[in-house]
Design brief:
Chain lengths: 155, 270
């Protein structure tokens, strides 16, 4: 099948199998920052923003989309121009192996768009679909709260 | 290449006509379907173009289109209706990204034993609106009992009366990411400090959807000071089938204890 989606602010034509998940379509087209973990909706490694909302790309049929807006972690910021959230993850030591980080960044971005001044409990709830095997979460939660502070002072 | 066809109907009539073919499956959020083997599926039918996502509180009735997600429901109930039984139950269901995708129609139709939606819908005595050969509105309890309805009908919406109540929802999970082994939903209609009516649903036991009628009738007319948790637990009759990693007697004991606690927590809620 063929479909055009707006990925990281560019219209991209995708070719995919009719029963394929968005996760596989994105990875097959080079968006390897979208990670494949459990493929069951449990780990959050595959998170992307779909029309502004964080979703597990492994649970979405690409065929159910058309013209929708997708944002991956690389669309939020890059190595040379990191987003405030990505920089906060580095500064707070919230990255170890890094496998969960793109999904964590997407979940944090979605949260801070909706709720720029979250409490710690709200951060934990927003990240409830993201598993990390390395950090123990404390530094990740700190990073999101730190990003919220930095974004507030930028406003 | 998988040989599977997709239909994108623009009208409900078109969708209903296509769904007469039993090999065509409606796709709501797709969060369950995407994990299923495709051998019995001839084609998928996307419900996303049908505008089934309206939410309305008109007069004394809440109506939700079947394509509303769990997150949509939470958003509309927050903060004014945060004591509502549906808010309490969906707040911790699945996880944040899943709640952005699971639809009311898909969840109500699938009704798994770990459902956080079935309990509150049964407690609210909700109706489901079905598009089919003839449009129909049926109580959700009846929909769950009739496999023919479940196989054939497309859920287009869900509605229930808006009335004051106190509520609590318990999920039996080991970690917050777990799907619940069972859920208990308690809805209480009050008259001052007395319970006027209690509706208590246990989802996930051997009976799958169980109304705790003995407990409900015991509670009628009572107030907090008259309730003893052990006595409430003794009124719960429930059995579980054996499941990998779970002892059925343990689950039954836990369900009794948590039903009593849930009643007390609903009474003490606002
Ligand atoms: C990791 C994970 C954790 C979860 N945890 C929970 C939890 O804790 N609590 C909870 O309540 N749920 C939970 N769920 C959700 C549940 O397991 C199902 O995935 C969900 O209920 C399916 O909803 P859907 O809208 O995605 O339906 P789909 O996957 O699209 O469809 C499911 C079934 O319903 C049919 N269907 C879809 N829409 C309609 C309609 N409008 N009318 C008639 N039939 C229809 C489909 O044909 C299919 O047979 C979890 C899911 C995941 C992936
Ligand atoms: S890979 Fe999608 S949630 Fe784990
Ligand atoms: S940093 Fe390794 S999984 Fe999170």
């Amino acid at each position: 099948m063929k479909r055009t989606l707006n990925i990281n602010r560019k219209d991209i034509e995708l070719r995919f199998d009719p029963a394929e998940s968005l996760l596989h379509t994105l990875r097959n087209h080079g968006y390897t920052e979208v990670k494949s973990g459990c493929e069951e909706g449990e780990c959050g490694a595959c998170l992307v923003l779909l029309n502004g909302k964080a979703v597990n790309s492994c649970l979405i049929f690409t065929s159910s989309l058309n013209g929708d807006r997708i944002l991956t972690a690389a669309g939020i910021g890059t190595l040379h121009e990191p987003h405030v959230i990505q920089q906060a993850f580095v500064d707070c030591g919230a990255v170890q192996c890094g496998f969960c980080t793109p999904g964590m960044v997407i979940a944090s971005y979605a949260l801070l768009q909706e709720n720029p001044e979250p409490t710690e409990a709200e951060v934990r709830r927003a990240l409830s679909g993201n598993l990390c095997r390395c950090t123990g979460y404390v530094k990740i939660v700190e990073a999101v709260l730190c990003a919220a502070e930095r974004l507030k002072s930028e406003r | 290449m998988t040989k599977i066809h997709w239909h994108y109907p623009n009208s409900l009539d078109e969708a209903v006509l296509l769904l007469r073919d039993p090999r065509i499956r409606a796709v709501g959020g797709g969060t369950d379907l995407i994990k299923r083997p495709l051998s019995t599926v001839g084609a998928f039918l996307s419900l996303w173009g049908l505008n089934l996502n309206a939410i309305d509180l008109r007069g004394d009735t809440w109506s939700f289109g079947s394509m509303c997600t769990y997150a949509d429901v939470l958003k509309v109930l927050e903060p004014e209706h945060s004591g509502h039984v549906l808010y309490r139950s969906l707040l911790h269901a699945a996880n944040t990204p899943c709640r952005n995708r699971i639809t009311l129609g898909g969840s109500a139709a699938f009704a798994p034993r770990w459902s956080d939606l079935a309990g509150p819908l049964l407690a609210l005595e909700a109706d489901v609106h079905l598009g089919g050969d003839k449009e129909e509105t049926v109580p959700y309890a009846r929909y769950l009992q009739h496999s023919e309805l479940r196989k054939k009908a497309l859920i287009t919406g869900i509605s229930f009366l808006n009335f004051a109540h106190r509520a609590a929802h318990y999920r039996e999970v080991r970690t917050h990411n777990d799907m619940p082994q069972f859920t208990i939903t308690v809805l209480l209609k009050m008259q001052n400090s007395d319970i006027r009516e209690a509706r208590i649903i246990l989802v996930g036991s051997e009976a799958r959807f169980l109304r705790l009628e003995k407990l409900e009738s015991h509670l009628r007319g009572k107030r907090r000071a008259q309730l003893d948790a052990d006595a409430l637990a003794a009124l719960v009759e429930v059995t579980f089938k054996s499941r990998p990693g779970f002892d059925p007697d343990y689950l039954a004991h836990k369900a009794k204890t948590e039903s009593a606690r849930c009643v007390i927590s609903a009474l003490e809620s606002r």
